[in-house]
Amino acid sequence: MYPQGSNNIQFNVSGLGCWLFAIGAAWLLGAIGLGWLVKSIVVLLGLVLIAPVIAFVGFRWWLSRNLIEGPCPVCDTPLTGLKGAKTLCPNCQTPLQVQGYGFERFTPEGTVEVSAVDVTSNGMSDDDTIDVRVEVLPPAQDKG
Ligand SMILES: [Zn+2]
């Protein structure tokens, strides 16, 4: 038998004791049929700790997949937008559709895009007319 009261071996049990207490408490609760309580608390605690991490990582991942950066097709202003979203260029007010590869002019259904080819004004006379010749552009292709 070791002599009682001999206390020359000391462990730093501040952390270990805490765990031992937790394990002991868990065992005790399990022994009296409250293991489900321990498990649910552990699961709940794990969820509380992990959920923000998962949410953050998931959000980052989602952003990296859906955040599109590219220039405005009209005025080359650098833009950032979410994939599939419709946005308005802050510089030239052009409605834009964010595609997987960049920004594209958003044209509502039925819009015919034209390009001004020749604009001539007949000057300052009273019957001032402006002759605009336009070229009909092919409808925008949906590249996905
Ligand atoms: Zn623009």
Describe this structure in a few short sentences.
By secondary structure, this protein is α+β, with helices and mostly antiparallel strands. It is built from two helices and seven strands, in the order ααβββββββ. Helix 1 (14-31) packs across helix 2 (35-66).
* Largest beta sheet: strand ordering: 3-4-5
What is the percent of helical residues?
Answer: 25-40%
Q: How many helical elements?
A: 2
Integer-rounded radius of gyration = 35 Å
What shape does the CA trace take? rod-shaped
Could you give a short account of the major beta sheet? 3 strands, antiparallel
The set of bound ligands, ions and cofactors reads: zinc ion
Assess the beta-strand content as a share of residues: 15-25%
Mean pLDDT figure: 78
The number of strands is 7
State the order of secondary-structure elements, H for helix, E for strand: HHEEEEEEE
Name the structural class.
alpha+beta
Low-confidence stretches: none
How widely separated are the two ends? 82 Å
Provide an overview of this structure:
With 144 residues, this protein is α+β, with helices and mostly antiparallel strands. The protein has a domain of 51 residues. Strand 1 and strand 2 form a beta hairpin. Helix content is 35%, strand content 24%.
Please tag this protein with its features:
144 residues, alpha+beta, three-stranded antiparallel beta sheet, two-stranded antiparallel sheet, 2 helices, binds zinc ion
